[in-house]
Amino acid sequence: MNPLKHVAIIMDGNGRWGIKNKNSRNAGHKQGLTTVDQVIKTSIKQKIKFLTLFAFSTENWKRPKKEIIYLFRLLENFLKKRINYLHKQNIKLRIIGVKNFSNNLNNLLKSAEKKTSKNSVLQINLALNYGSKSELINALKILKKNNEVINEKNINKYLHTSGIPDPDLLIRTGNTNRLSNFLLWQLSYSEIFFEKKLWPEFKESDYLKIINKFKKVKRNYGNI
After folding, report:
1. Is residue 149 in some structural domain?
2. Catalytic annotation on 12?
3. 37 labelled catalytic
4. Which domain holds residue 10?
5. One of 2, 21, 60, 154 is an active-site residue; which one?
6. What are phi and psi of 42, to 5 degrees?
7. Cβ distance 98 to 67 under 8 Å?
8. Is 12 left (phi over 0), alpha (psi -120 to 50) or beta?
9. 200-217, pLDDT tens digit by residue?
10. pLDDT in tens, 158-198
């Protein structure tokens, strides 16, 4: 049975679910938070130590302005209402990506990270304004500026995920089979599961089914 320490998830399909069921993409984003809560609870039950959620990519700025505003308002409300709950559950929150949002949201994110920094049951890495290609370019620029040797260890040191083990498992919902510029370096040996269900439809039973399949996969890491 494979040990499972870190799960990464591309939470795809919120907008499509919203259009299909509520005639509103925003309704899908709101409904998706229910799935987030369930996945967090299940991750704790399964003793998973790291959960990385792809919430907003560097490419998502291309979306309609009204949708982007709604997404960030939803995130602000989530932080205000749920951060104390997460803290009481001994959950640590870490933001990966570039924090160049509104002053209000930036302050909320910094406050949430500081408040939960000592927690240890589960670390949630929330990928916001995150893009793997820009992350790698930035790491290489720092290495060049510092005149450091370009090698795997030093690149890892300057990634947003520095100090976080690479994901063992990646799940993408929404019946889309691509990585979308997410953790391209870190996913080099992750097991990848593409799920047909849209994110708001993804249930605990679906999560557990994938976890059980993962545990039975033979992981060779280039060996035989």
Report:
1. no
2. yes
3. no
4. 6-130+165-216
5. 60
6. -70, -40
7. no
8. beta
9. 999 999 999 999 999 999
10. 999 999 999 999 999 999 999 999 999 999 999 999 999 99
